Amino acid sequence: MNLAPAFKTIVSVAGATGAVSAVSVPLTLTRGSSTVTDKLNIVSCDGSVGDNNRELVSFGDKDSLSVCWSVEKPQGEGSVQQVASVNSQELSSLFAHKWNRGTESWKNDSSTHWLQQCTDSESGWVILTTEGSAEYLGLCNSANQEGIPFIKKEGQVGEDSSVVKLYVCSTNCWAKEELSNSTKVFKAEKAGSWNSVSFYRN
């Protein structure tokens, strides 16, 4: 599904000159009676998305094989602030892996480092929030002990992938947090700490 071009005013850009992380994965598509395998390339957007007049696309758009993503915070009056993202390579890998799986549940997929429960580190954690139909995942990576990044996926499982909305958070993510047998239990997200992820044809 293609969306009309979207132009956004960037109020400020944080970390726009940082390293760009790209991930390419084979993507199998069905066209008519034949099945075609193309290469999907996903990269974090380099520089201001507004200045480049990139075309906004939905997550999982079947007509887009070269895509960049940007973490953005609303600033009012239709403008956004582009937010510096952490763990860009890990996020690019997740987006590429899930690009044509937006309608599926992500929380039980152990093929990535993004999980609902992490027991691989000394200080384990589990996400037990029941806020609506959203799914929450955190980066379970022993090399990342501080500032664990989390992602939230909104959209009913089984619906068209165009309704999928993604949000990320790297600090101050939880309003309700408990400790159970040395395991952190996250129960409610902290309002204002989660920023949306937008995707653009690259």
User: What series of H and E elements makes up the topology?
Assistant: EEEEEEHEEEEEEEEE
* Ends distance: 16 Å
Overall form: globular
Largest sheet: 11 strands, mixed
Question: What is the average of the pLDDT values?
Answer: 75
Percentage of β-strand residues: 35-45%
Number of strands: 15
Weakly predicted, low-confidence segments: 1-20, 25-37
Q: Count the helices. How many? A: 1
Helix-residue proportion: under 10%
Structural class: mainly beta
Radius of gyration: 17 Å
Domains (count): 1
List the helices and strands and how they pair.
Blueprint (H helix, E strand, L loop, with lengths): L9 E4 L8 E10 L2 E11 L10 E3 L8 E11 L2 E5 L4 H11 L15 E2 L1 E2 L6 E3 L7 E5 L10 E5 L10 E5 L4 E7 L2 E7 L5 E7 L1
Parallel strand pairs: 1-6, 3-5, 9-14
Antiparallel strand pairs: 2-3, 4-15, 5-6, 5-15, 7-10, 8-9, 10-11, 11-12, 12-15, 13-14
List descriptors.
202 residues; eleven-stranded mixed β-sheet; four-stranded mixed β-sheet; disordered N terminus
Describe the structure.
With 202 residues, the protein is mainly beta. It is built from one helix and 15 strands; from the N terminus they run ββββββαβββββββββ. It has one helix at 88-98, and strands at residues 10-13, 22-31, 34-44, 55-57, 66-76, 79-83, 114-115, 117-118, 125-127, 135-139, 150-154, 165-169, 174-180, 183-189, 195-201. The strands form two sheets. Strands 1, 2, 3, 4, 5, 6, 7, 10, 11, 12 and 15 form an eleven-stranded mixed sheet that branches. The protein has a four-stranded mixed sheet with strand order 8-9-14-13, with no helix packed on it. A hairpin with a 2-residue loop joins β5 and β6. The longest helix has 11 residues, at 88-98.
